[in-house]
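Comment thread on ticket #2218

A.B. wrote:
> Attaching the input chain for the structure job we discussed in standup.
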Amino acid sequence: MTMLRFMTAGESHGPCLTAILEGLPAGLKLDEAAINRDLARRQEGYGRGGRMKIEKDKVQVVSGVRFGETLGGPITLQVVNRDFANWGARMAAFGEPAGEKVTASRPGHADLTGVWKYDRRDVRDILERSSARETTMRVAVGAVCKAFLHALGVEVVSEVTEIGGVQVDAAKIDRAKIGQDIGSELNCYDPDAEQRMKARIDEAKAAGDTLGGTFEVLARGLPPGLGSHIQWDRRLDARLAGAMMSIQAIKGVEIGAGFAVAHLPGSQIHDEVFVGENGLPQRRTNRAGGLEGGMSNGEEIVVRAAMKPIPTLMQPLHSVDIATHEPVLACKERSDTCAVSAASVVGEAMTAFVLAQAFCEKFGADAMADLREAVRAYRARIAREWKEGPHA
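C.D. wrote:
> Ran it. Output below, let me know if you need it in another format.
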């Protein structure tokens, strides 16, 4: 079984960030500009901080691609940290330590637990790697996986649905337009709600505070049967939820109707199945979010995530100094007031990776031509057998 996997490396203010993606088939056409577009989307958004004015992320493809096509080997992606020019002495791999130690840990961040776990005396040894700057490479990997899915007729998009308690009005949103560039600074498809979100962000910034929110990721065009009910770790819903929870600051995930299923009877939750005009089964509702029994069911996949406010506050919270054990105010790193729109792009990336992984596992991943044919044959077999009638 072919396993699609990736790893990232690098620190927030180190020389560069790197990702290695292994397991994609040969023959996939990639567009460098498309990867850079997603990297730019991650950096944009109302409420982002000063770091995004320094970095202009551009991908460098170091291996695995030749003349715009994947070769089947590991794909190495790199993004240079321009801010390293200002941090070289403090982030040098060798030599004598430079700069003051950071000892005032931030509540809500990896700082305090990290220095305990890894036996460090400087919080910077933890915060540099735990920073959400790492998601730069997840987005680069996700852009490659989105290209792979697009070649198979699958689209992965997202929208922001709430920031700081301001929610969109779902009735005002044309879901078919989600994924289109509408010029939103918050990846929000309700213009009235977006203006109120911006006002809330301005209020938080003036108060030295931060805001969280929610976003949802949609995947369209999937065949039924990705994932499996056979073992716990092969269930597609579990893998999607785990991937989303792995994103920094994400504290909750739901699929489809999510927590609403706890409040309603089964007659109002389960998606009834009918025979459609094409003679194949279809659902008129999608409360399951495109996933039943740990498998895709052919409907649109809907994954929603809740992001907590960023732990770095310009009006710092109370903490304890790890060196003196005395009360202190938490340290201040250059940060954002709100990054929910950026998180939605990372959510797309992680969803795309999990779905690409599921495709490779089910259909093989040596060559795109073989994989496309396997997917086509699978879809055709399902349609043919259904239309031929019940099995004898």
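A.B. wrote:
> Thanks. Noting for the ticket: The chain has ten helices and 17 strands.
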